[in-house]
Amino acid sequence: MRFKDKNVLITGGNSGIGLATAKLFVAEGANVIITGRDPKTLDAAVQELGPKVRAIRADVVDHDQRESLFQSIREEFGELDVVFANAGIMKPTPAGHTNEATFEEVLSVNVTGVFLTIQSSLPLLKRGSSIVLNGSVISTLGVAGVSAYAASKAGVRAMARSLAAELSPKGIRINTVVPGATKTPIWGSSESADARLSSLTASIPLRRVGNADEIANVVAFLASDDSSYVQGAEIIVDGGTSSLPAGAPIYLAK
Ligand code: NAP
User: Fold this and answer.
1) I want to staple 167 with a disulfide (CB 3.0 to 4.6 A). Which of 39, 130, 172, 177 is the partner?
2) 31-36 and 53-57: which strand pairing?
3) Which of 186, 214, 235 is the best mutation target for the ligand 1 pocket, counting ligand atoms within 8 Å of the beta carbon and taking the most?
């Protein structure tokens, strides 16, 4: 049990990668605080994961909700050992068809929301604690139609390095998990989402999309003492997508 009695905050812990990570941390003995905006999925997560999970409704970019979240954590848990700044959104932003509000919303939730979460966490983090950010391979792949999302995740990856320099003297580690295509509700629940994901498999060397548990395993590694000398680093979890150029020939041995 790597996280026995540790206090773990997961933003966006009511769905997808955040929910899978919450499940893993609970199995490893942690007290887990999950946040999100949707009260139904927050309640469902508590029903599913049990009394070691505390769900608090909070939008990462709402000042008052964030203040109230961290006040509750301070009162109920005292301090935090792990923060997984995971909450994020993906919206199409094709050039020529995107309004300012949509572009700003993606940057606001995915970049500003991450920074403000970390900033609010700092008074509760002691030496030896660990922060994990959630990036994306879309920040480097050059995928069409998602400029805001790509820029936001490049921002997350850059921010982690700057924060690592800042937090190292305090003995706080910060690292980034960088997922490739992973089957979660961010892709929608419709058949078209399934079709979109399966159309991606040809460009993934392992020939399948990832699942949320596979990302959670890496988050837990980065959050745990198993990675005690890993600082300002990224672990890419994408089935090899970003290691090979698109369309690279694969020569099979006879
Ligand atoms: P998801 O199932 O849609 O989860 C997104 C989570 O973020 C939800 O719990 C959502 O909860 C929360 N959230 C969104 N906006 C929020 C806000 N303003 N305040 C608080 N919580 C908010 O999708 P996911 O794939 O697990 O995404 C998790 C992270 O992984 C994201 O940062 C995403 O960019 C990253 N990622 C995903 C993939 C992939 O292929 N799935 C690949 C690379 C990176 P509410 O809706 O209740 O607010």
Assistant:
1) 172
2) parallel
3) 186
